[in-house]
Design goal:
This protein is mainly α and 201 residues long. It is built from nine helices and no strands.
Amino acid sequence: MYICRIMPRKKEFDYEEKLEAAMHLFWEQGYHFTSLSDLESRLKINRSSIYPTYGDKKELLLKCLDRYQKGKLSEYQSFLRDKSHNALEDLKQILVMAVKQSISDQKVCLAVKMVFETALADEEINRMLLTNEKSIEKVYLAILERGILQNLIKDDLDTETTAAFFASSSATLLKNYVLHRDQNQVDNMIQLMIQLVSTKK
C-alpha cells in the first residue's frame, strides 16, 4: 500500500529579515496599536507562517526586544574594551551616542517605549527590560570605577546609584530635545552630568 508522506513546507522567507521588519513596526506603532493584520502586511507573510515561526504577538515582541537590546548592549559594552581610555570621555560619548541615535531615528529607544507601554502591566516584558537595564548599569558602573582609579571621578560617589542614574538619563535627554529642539541644551546637560561626577573643578 502506497502511503503519501506530506513533507513540511520549507520557509520561503528570511527569519532575521522579517524579525527586523516586525521590530520596526512595533517601534513605529507601539505594541497595542499593532494588529496581526498589520504584521501580515509589513512582513508580507500570513499569520499561519507567523505563529509557528515567531509565536503569538507577545512572543514576537519579546523576540524583537531581545534582538534590539542585544544590539544596543553590544554598543555600550564596546566602551569597556580599552581599560586605559579616559573614563570621563567614555561617559560623555555613551550619552551622546544614545541621544544622537534617537534623534537620527526620530523616535525614542524601543526599550524605553515598551517600558511605558507594556512593562507596567506585563511582568514578563518587565523582567526582560529590567535585565537589559541592569546590564547597561554594569557598563556605567565599570566606567565609573575605572574613572575613580584614574583619579578623574570622585571616589566618594555612590557608584551603583550613579550608574543607575546615567543608565536612565538618555530618555530624559531625548525628552528635552523633543520638546525644545535644542541640541546645544542637550550637550550642556550632558556636560553638567559629567561635571557632577568629575574631580575637576
